[in-house]
UniProtKB/TrEMBL annotation:
InterPro entries: PRELI/MSF1_dom (IPR006797), Slowmo/Ups (IPR037365)
Species, as recorded: Dreissena polymorpha
Highest taxon listed in the record's lineage: Eukaryota
GO cellular component term of the entry, any: mitochondrial intermembrane space
A matching Pfam family: PRELI
Residue ranges of every copy of the PRELI/MSF1 domain listed in the record: 1-159
Protein name: PRELI/MSF1 domain-containing protein
Length: 193
């Protein structure tokens, strides 16, 4: 259910920056019970107007690539995302893993790490790095809220495949599974100057 909430959370009215999500590739391995997906998110450029005076930052849209590996046997979802826009100047990478809680398999534990590496922009690099860090944390908070809402919508549906094809499920039969997110202070953010 958590994997489905992730795969159906965008686009959303609660996330103003993600405008479109394109599924580019799906590979299934029935022997290993795994599914690989690669998608591209089309996002609004969040860079403030003052920084957009730098020509390279004045992009109308930002493209982000996400790769995911869903292991149904282990009930684990691994994600890797990176920016495609500005690759030569900045690297924004994020890795997340969702897996059942060791003591209560009805709960899900999420571990996430983000890396911001800005290079080749000169003295503005540190300013852009600070902006990227703030934007990343705000996106994490919005993503959590959207995931929680999606879990509530899907709380009585057990079929992953059914939910991938539907945006809304309405019922009140069962309580949603608990998802355990570490506090924002527990996230590892590694910055390179």
């Amino acid at each position: 259910m958590v994997a489905n909430a992730h795969f159906t959370k965008y686009p959303s009215d609660k996330e103003k920056f993600v405008k479109k999500l394109e599924l580019k590739e799906v590979q299934e391995d029935s022997k290993q019970w795994t599914t690989y997906r690669r998608s591209i998110a089309h996002c609004l450029n969040p860079i403030p107007g003052i920084l957009r005076r730098i020509p390279v930052l004045n992009e109308p849209a930002i493209l982000l690539e996400e790769e995911s590996w869903l292991n149904c046997r282990e009930k684990e979802l691994s994600l890797k995302s990176k920016n495609l826009t500005w690759e030569t100047y900045a690297s924004l990478r994020e890795q997340s893993v969702f897996r059942p809680h060791a003591e209560n398999p009805d709960w899900t534990v999420m571990a996430q790490e983000g890396i911001i590496d800005i290079h080749g922009i000169g003295p503005f690099g540190r300013v852009i790095e600070m902006f990227a860090e703030t934007f990343l944390y705000a996106g994490i908070r919005r993503g959590f809220a959207i995931m929680e809402d999606r879990l509530m919508e899907m709380k009585d549906t057990n079929s992953f495949e059914d939910n991938l094809n539907k945006k809304e499920v309405v019922s009140t039969k069962a309580a949603p599974p608990q998802i355990v997110f570490p506090s924002l202070s527990d996230f590892h953010l590694i910055l390179f100057c």
